[in-house]
Design a protein that fits this description.
Shape: globular
CATH class of one domain: Mainly Alpha
CATH superfamily of one domain: Tyrosine recombinase, N-terminal domain
CATH topology of one domain: DNA polymerase, domain 1
Number of strands: 0
Number of helices: 4
Radius of gyration: 16 Å
Helix content: 40-55%
Structural class: mainly alpha
Largest sheet: none
Strand content: under 5%
Distance between the termini: 46 Å
Order of helices and strands: HHHH
Length: 107
């Protein structure tokens, strides 16, 4: 949690980030954590993105959480991401949560 706070994560998002890391490791139960890397992360994210109801910002949140886990918490450098074709289901690096909609006031 300290790594997430130092990285600027909002308190309300910290449980979600921890959840992404836990779900990632649950996806690969027979593998040691230090043996998992970019290939497994991208496989997990692609499977997550393919699920109905999953938004791009959720996939990006998972990517960020896993990147922080490996780079900052474990001190393990991940391989760079490969270029992805435009028709892939991967979000852009700048994807953010959708803006909140405001209710219109009645006159």
């Amino acid at each position: 949690m300290t790594v997430l706070r130092e990285a600027g994560a909002k308190e309300k998002n910290i449980p979600s980030c921890i959840g992404w890391v836990r779900r990632f490791f649950a996806r690969f139960p027979d593998r040691r954590r230090r043996d998992l890397g970019r290939k497994e992360i991208e496989t997990f994210l692609a499977e997550t993105a393919a699920r109905p109801g999953t938004s791009d910002w959720q996939v990006q949140q998972a990517r960020d959480a896993l990147g922080l886990y490996y780079a900052k918490f474990r001190g393990i450098a991940l391989e760079p991401r490969e270029f992805l074709p435009a028709n892939s289901h991967e979000p852009s690096p700048n994807t953010q949560a959708p803006p909140l909609r405001r209710r219109r006031r009645r006159p």
